[in-house]
Task: structure prediction
Amino acid sequence: MARKLLLEHINVPGINTLDVYRQKGGYRSVEKALKTLSPDDVVEEVKKSGLRGRGGAGFPTGMKWSFLAKPEGVERYLVCNADESEPGTFKDRYLMTYIPHALIEGMIVSSYALGAKTSYIYVRGEMMPQIRILEKAIAEAKSAGFLGKNILGSGYDLELYVQPGGGAYICGEETALLESLEGKRGNPRIKPPFPAIAGLYGCPTVVNNVESIAAVVPIINDGGEEYAKVGIGRSTGTKLISASGNLVRPGVYEIELGLPVEEFIYSDEYCGGIANGKRLKATVAGGSSVPVLPANLTLKLANGDPRLMSYESLSEGGFATGTMMGSGGFIAFDEDQCIVRNTWNFSRFYHHESCGQCSPCREGTGWMEKVLHRIEHGHGKMSDIDLLVDVSKKIEGNTICPLGDAAAWPVASAIRHFRDEFEWHVREPQKSQQTNYGIARYAEPIASGLKQEN
Amino acid sequence: MLKVEETQPVEFSPALKAKFAEISSRYPEGKQKSALLPILHEVQAELGWLSANAMDQVAAWLKIEPIEVYEVASFYSMYFLKPQGKYVLEVCRTGPCCLVGAEKVMAHIEHKLGVKENEVTADGLFSWRGVECLAACGFGPVLQIGPEYTFYENLDEQKVDTLLEELRKK
Result:
């Protein structure tokens, strides 16, 4: 069995209550941090751990914390990003549902490290049940003296609140989240200034993902160096992977970074293979925004070595033959799935979720959705395929926030790897309405001389 | 585009206003606009949707301009600017759920209820719509029903039938 740092006790009955959580060693990190460590010591441990942001960007958490400005007499804030909305990702919902105190405990230690006296957990509004769970956990922690004034006699005060969102993918982008928390539309801000300088209410602010905050608990309990021993290379620690799609056992798995992708998909400890005895056609390894890969490139690198579940290995080969870790939303497609249909579906998602601030994204996502819709429904032209590539290139890099890139990459990568399937849809407008293109060569061993990006 | 329907005047109950006050106390002095999204959820939970009158009253309570409420209510997908059925079935229509049959579930709901997306059944009980990813991809197809946003997971046609029957009996 692989090491579990976050979900070790997830199956213990009553682990969602403070009593059981404490019996299993919960809130030790709060006692350790507040009684024996200075805030800077905590930051130092997180830096040593090599923890990278678990929301999608993979930026080192300790470094993000060390950028926080600390002017005299100005409030600082920690905001937890629980606006989990990336298609394919459901790990934070799982963690908050079953082991909410792991997040509360992490929030207390992290807030202490950053000198925040008020912290917010911004939860997407649809997760009302999870909001209730967190509010209950906060009340329990407060009555046990882990929140409020003079926590554990340390002189440190902290209030923690849960804030519901209103249903907008864009609010997972940290500056849009802050706008939303201020009671406004979720339009991302132009950076700089970064939130570390001017965030919530113009004050220095750190925004971290649920899983990143929860990971601070084992880091403080065992020390940053111990945490860094788990994992592989610069991908330290464990990662929650949300597995969905055509798998025997979809669900949330905690893996040690560095696990071979093949083992993750096929071993009985994890997903147990492809459902209904079918073959794997493609995967989206890190949430809908990352490039889609055919089965052969999912399991192996272009040079034939096995691909691993780590930040480096998943992105090996760049966008020509690789993808990204992203949020760890692992979506598997079996041989009966249509890549064109799925790409259209994702494009509709990004069009729906674009905040509308930047015209390349607002207009471009709509164009991509329309063009993909007509290809999927048998009205496409051969020139549409290059038109899609062209539109995606005009969005990428030309917007205030990364939603534009996130909308462009799935389209560009689908055409890069599955162009023959798009062409087949155009050539066979009727047949493509009744049958699927199938698996073609996507699952075959990697052929030499992959098509170069032009 | 914002289209708000006219309705009867709205009066918030003292209990609701007490809730507004509790929510507003979570933010620093002068930053009470932060309470807007949670307050709109409370209002919608009580009234079923957000009428122009309701939004105007929220604006007055928070001492902000009505447009500041309209622009927020129309930006976020959870707020209803039109009356809905008593139960709004919101089915996830995004990629991972579609891989495991969400489109079939939606077609079945449309067929069973006999109304198109965003329409209300004649008895006023149900409306339905497709929504984007609900962060439950491993348990798809899923749907949620407000105002507590209860999740119904691993749906198929039979489970939808059972759910509709249970809701009708409530």
About this structure: Chain B has two domains: 14-75, 87-169. The interface with chain A takes residues 26, 28, 31, 33-38, 40-41, 68, 71-72, 75-79, 93-96, 98-100, 131-140, 144, 146-151 of chain B (CB under 8 Å).
